[in-house]
Design brief:
InterPro entries: DUF6283. The structure is a single chain. This protein has about 140 residues and is mainly alpha-helical. About 40% of the residues lie in helices and about 0% in strands. It is built from six helices and no strands.
Length: about 140
């Protein structure tokens, strides 16, 4: 049956790459490039759900990324369809992902979020450096 991944948090985390107010250059370019795949037609999208980076540590409960849920139309996310078909997510988690509305502004697409994130990737500003340090501290504790 369903695994232990929970639905999205009430608000995307403060370092979510989908948030408009997150500095550019926080995440690795590989992570930004993954965002683009979810903009493809349903049949061409990644089959794995997007897990919140802040919940992807051994000591936290994994959640679907609230930014991912809020940015993309859940009805057309192949990953949610695959999870429903294989019963790897509970039906209420899938429903929460589809119905999710972010209380903070998000980019309109994974491509837009990736373009923003990559803009300062090679020369991140102070806000990005501080956000990256915060993420490292959280991951070192787990």
């Amino acid at each position: 049956m369903a695994n232990d991944v929970r639905g999205p948090a009430p608000s995307p985390c403060t370092t979510c790459p989908y948030r408009r107010d997150v500095a550019s250059g926080v995440w690795d370019e590989v992570e930004y490039e993954k965002l683009r795949g979810y903009d493809a037609p349903t049949w061409g999208q990644p089959q794995k759900v997007w897990i919140c980076h802040s919940s992807a540590t051994p000591t936290t409960e994994q959640r679907l990324c609230a930014g991912w849920c809020g940015c993309h139309d859940g009805e057309h996310l192949l990953a949610l369809r695959v999870a429903a078909a294989h019963e790897t997510l509970a039906p209420e988690v899938i429903e929460a992902a589809i119905e999710y509305v972010s209380p903070v502004p998000l980019f309109d697409s994974g491509n837009e979020a990736a373009d923003h994130g990559m803009a300062d990737f090679h020369w991140p500003g102070r806000a990005a450096i501080e956000a990256t340090a915060k993420i490292r501290r959280l991951r070192e504790r787990s």
